[in-house]
Predict the 3D structure of the following.
Amino acid sequence: QVQLRESGGGLVQPGGSLRLSCAASGFTFANYAANWYRQAPGKERELVASISAEDTGKTGTNYRDSVKGRFTISRDNVLKMVYLEMNNLKPEDTAVYYCNAFDRYTSNDWWGQGTQVTVSS
């Protein structure tokens, strides 16, 4: 059974930090690009950060401009985990954060249920 399960969300003050984790199971995680998306109330879901699959030969990462220098995505293919380290959080980072895994060869596209991140004083 394919599953992505996020954890680590919560309430944090502006300037604070959180680390999101996503546990994958039921598929060959290393073959998939891993992504973090977020969706704020009344807004469309947006891509926050991505990290390439193992078969690309190198680990490439990409970030949306608004989180560059503050967020870091990483993965552990042995543990089948993907992480999002978020520092210097701002109120505009408040959203439900979703873990996603995508295989460019099969177009398999798996999603987690999401975890709420709220940045507020």
